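Just curious: can you write whichever protein you like plus the matching structure tokens?

***
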Amino acid sequence: MSGCRRTGNRRTGALVADRGWKRRFDDPIPLPRGRQLVTLEDAGKYITTLPKAEHNAQEWQAAMEALILVATLGGSTMFARIGIMRALNRNVERVFNPDRKDHHWGRRKLKGDG
């Protein structure tokens, strides 16, 4: 196994590395103030520039570990993306909004019920 995978059609035969810090995320990760993390390298540099107290937070340590594993061993960049998104949103409180969606429970309407 060469560590590369084919993408595109047979004519172009483009090869994309399965490992390395230059790999791109499937979708860029939006940051506060409009910046984006496009590659694993961008994400690693971003984490290393965080203030020490924030950098040492458990969520950021887990995100960095996921980045290193994906960059060195290969695998889906989605794992690293999830780690970074969890770290970025670690202080965001999720609140359930019952008005957001209509309730679907209750008597089921059948075709002949009209």
